Amino acid sequence: xxxxxxxxxxxxxxxxxxxxxxxxxxxxxxxxxxxxxxxxxxxxxxxxxxxxxxxxxxxxxxxxxxxxxxxxxxxxxxxxxxxxxxxxxxxxxxxxxxxxxxxxxxxxxxxxxxxxxxxxxxxxxxxxxxxxxxxxxxxxxxxxxxxxxxxxxxxxxxxxxxxxxxxxxxxxxxxxxxxxxxxxxxxxxxxxxxxxxxxxxxxxxxxxxxxxxxxxxxxxxxxxxxxxxxxxxxxxxxxxxxxxxxxxxxxxxxxxxxxxxxxxxxxxxxxxxxxxxxxxxxxxxxxxxxxx
Length: 292
Fold this sequence. Notes:
This protein is an alpha+beta fold. The protein has 7 helices and 17 strands. The strands form 5 sheets. It has a 5-stranded mixed barrel with strand order 1-2-3-8-7. Strands 11-17-13-14 form a 4-stranded mixed beta sheet, with no helix packed on it. Strands 12-16-15 form a 3-stranded antiparallel beta sheet, with no helix packed on it. The protein is globular.
């Protein structure tokens, strides 16, 4: 599946970047209209849009969900590390943020780069591979190109995944060749489980025992998608997870696993709850979520 190559700059002042989302302003904002798929990229007054990095999911630094207050995953066990490494890799040398995670100053103010856009999500964010510096050799702004593993390996997405700072999270929009390569990268990072990576303290597969919201906001490192579902459930119904599988069934998220041709609906099929300990029963990289 070809992706749209867009040249531009990353600008973070006044925004709340995290390990998998940040703002990008194309040199020609008109190219946003050419991003494939049924969803459109939402633009700000400068013509910029918000990126959601494809194939990865970083720990949450400010998730609202059912609100009204924002909640986060353990900030010192990966959430801030992924964000800081992303901004450093792109070329920001100094970043100052307030308590609300909003950037109040950055050096430089913008950095050049490009994105390989595969589509947009229902929130108006561009789903993309993020690159830094000049365009790849032999390409020009606005090209539709077949993205190979080599190009993905030059992206921020791959860099963060290889460092173990983010989880793999795949959707059906990502071509199989790229997904398999990113899955291998994630497996290597998980095997290494270096200190400071999400894998060093991950409880997604071993089991996360929940006694209250603070269990997942302060103590336990788990897959962000599971965190978001748990955070909403606990804020709505309290800490007992007896009805959590039914809640997941109501969400009805559709996904594929390798041994089944047909898709499966509802994460309760791959999540177990025993004595208020929640566990994912499949390796994260085996799950391919269906795009909405």
